[in-house]
Amino acid sequence: MILQSVTAILGYNRVEALREAATAVEQEKEILLEMIHSIQNSQDMRQISDGEREELNLTANRLMGRTLTVEVSVETIRNPQQQESLRHATRIIDEVVNKFLDDLGNARSHLMSLYSACSSEVPPGPVDQKFQSIVIGCALEDQKKIKRRLETLLRNIENSDKAIKLLEHSKGAGSKTLQQNAESRFN
Length: 187
Prior knowledge:
This protein is mostly helical.
């Protein structure tokens, strides 16, 4: 009788709604930090004056600092096997991330196979079966966090690729202009 009263007063749904709201705040913090970082490293930053760039960097750093002051923590209850699976999955992702600078292309394809292992949809490429079995051993909330982390890493790689291509394009256009100017001087 008392258990029913407590359950009725607090309500399981309210507790889950609180956890979901806190998780949404965690995700919003991650998105904001990613957006601020993306703006700071965008190609557009090279197109503006030094004064505007400095002001934008100061504002971005201030916003980054304020965003980092937000602390929300939703603890996941795990059994020992889930804890070990999470540690193992995290270690695998960290190893791939550490190899980024050595071999970006291979790191990207490896991350894609890890991401495919987390997806319930038919993946476009190979699936890392070993990683998939490790992730399945994790708590459901951890599975979602692993998938989000992989999505963020893949998005960051894609944004880096775009920035590199823009930089190469602008260098190519700049060298063509230099070449044309040099040719016009000799003609």
